[in-house]
Design a protein that fits this description.
single chain, 383 residues, alpha+beta, Aminopeptidase, 6-stranded mixed beta sheet, 26% strand, elongated, binds zinc ion
């Protein structure tokens, strides 16, 4: 694909809003359907076999396949959805280009990787007879919330001997990142009229003790281990809900907790440790309920001498002149792929700090370099 055509493609995709609807109904400008159809029709125009796979009602992922010399596949994945464009410093879906920069929600996270993978796939599909391995490319739904798109593809049996997950890494190769376990904690009380609070039990007062205990737990250093690229595990209380009216003593208060996992740490075990800690730190009746995890995403840690890392490093060095291996804090699909037995790493265009910001932008020069790297990996079958 010509340079200008590739730049046009990513801008066009930024102009198709694909905001993750989270747990709500799919509203205007939300959901993956329109972008999935766009990706499918562009790939089909290039003669590529391409299907939609519904992760949930109205939430399709795209699965494209270019058969190679062996059934064994290499998998390239980028996600369709974005976070909300609300509160951005400019019109989020205008796809404005100025010089070598593209501005908009999804420009870096993750439409740049998606466009670069599409361009690479179209290039190798022109002469697939030389491909050593089948190339699978997926444009997945719901990465930003529950990863339903990827999980349902794994459940359907899609597999590969290696995977490259496209995310804005600034063309660095990410071989380690944290995972996450999210869960709710509630306190129960007894509701009475606020004119006689002494007859009730205030669930918010109870929760304030729990929150303080969790703050102390987080400050004291979470978990025992430290990872050379990622440091320690963390814990953060992100949401609190409690009470219905100011004149009623609340009978329930709930918080949402985000526990970042080091690679190899299990979500359930981490949650069990929090439960044990709270039970010993709070030696009084608080009507405490610690729920099971709502979401667990495993961390990622691939050895730097793993064949996939070696091969991606060589391809990146060939195109950009250097190959940097690093870790990052956010979670990606790579953790899920590794947990499913598929070696995976993360590599893509766009600066790491751009994702989810009010001024999200993409350096378009990185787009072309990433497409060249993906194409070279598809050609070699990641060997
Ligand atoms: Zn992303």
């Amino acid at each position: 694909m010509e340079r200008d055509e590739l730049r046009k493609l990513v801008a066009e995709m930024v102009r198709i809003p694909s905001v993750n609807p989270l747990d709500g109904p799919i509203g205007e400008g939300q959901g993956e359907r329109e972008l999935a159809s766009f990706v499918q029709s562009r790939l089909r125009e290039a003669g590529i076999d391409c299907e939609l796979h519904d992760a949930a009602e109205g939430r399709p992922s795209v699965v494209a396949r270019v058969p190679g010399g062996s059934e064994e596949a290499v998998w390239f994945d980028a996600h369709l959805d974005t976070v909300s464009g609300d509160g951005m410093a400019f019109e989020p879906f205008a796809g404005r280009v100025e010089g070598d920069a593209l501005y908009g929600r999804g420009a870096a996270d993750d439409k740049a990787s998606l466009a670069a993978m599409m361009a690479a796939l179209m290039a190798v599909a022109k002469d697939a007879s030389s491909l050593p391995a089948t190339v699978v490319m997926t444009a997945t739904a719901d990465e930003e919330h529950r990863m339903q798109g990827l999980l349902s593809l794994l459940k359907s049996g899609l597999t590969a001997r290696g995977a490259v997950v496209g995310e804005p890494t600034g063309l660095e190769i990410i071989i380690a990142h944290k995972g996450v376990a999210r869960f709710k904690v509630a306190t129960k009380g007894k509701a009475v009229h606020s004119s006689r609070p002494e007859d009730g039990v205030n669930a918010i007062y109870r929760m304030s003790k729990v929150v303080q205990a969790l703050e102390a737990y987080a400050k004291g250093g979470v978990g025992r281990d430290s990872h050379p690229m990622l440091g320690r595990a963390t814990l953060s209380v992100g949401v609190i809900r409690g009470g219905k009216h100011v004149n009623v003593v609340p009978d329930r208060c709930e918080i949402e907790v985000d526990r970042r996992l080091l690679p190899g740490e299990e979500g359930r075990k981490a949650l069990g440790d929090v439960r044990t800690y709270l039970n010993s730190a709070l030696q009084e009746e608080l009507g405490l309920e610690v729920g099971s995890p709502d979401l667990v995403v495993p961390g990622l840690s691939l050895a730097s001498d793993h064949p996939l890392v070696q091969c991606v490093s060589a391809a990146v060095k060939e195109v950009t002149g250097q190959a940097v291996l690093s870790g990052m804090h956010g979670t990606t699909h790579a953790g899920q792929l590794v947990a499913a037995g598929i070696p995976a790493l993360v590599f893509g265009p766009g600066a790491m700090g751009q994702a989810h910001t009010a001024t999200e932008e993409l350096d378009l020069n990185q787009l072309e370099q990433a497409a060249a790297v993906y194409e070279s990996l598809m050609q070699s079958g990641c060997r």
